[in-house]
Amino acid sequence: MIRIAKQRILESSLSISEKSRLLENYQKFEEELNELFNIENLGKS
Q1: Burial code of 6-32, b = ≥16 C-beta within 10 A, e = fewer?
Q2: Most CB atoms within 10 A, among 7, 12, 22, 40?
Q3: pTM
Q4: Sequence ranges of the domains in the chain
């Protein structure tokens, strides 16, 4: 889902700075999700 969103941002007609800002936000969101899943998986072990 995040990969599709990133692709759509890249294909959009937004300016380079807007694309960069949005992609940076998605990157942070993706990192937070990964952390959350890692914590949940550790708790199940």
Answers
A1: beebeeeeeeeeebeebeeeeeeeeee
A2: 22
A3: 0.70
A4: 2-44
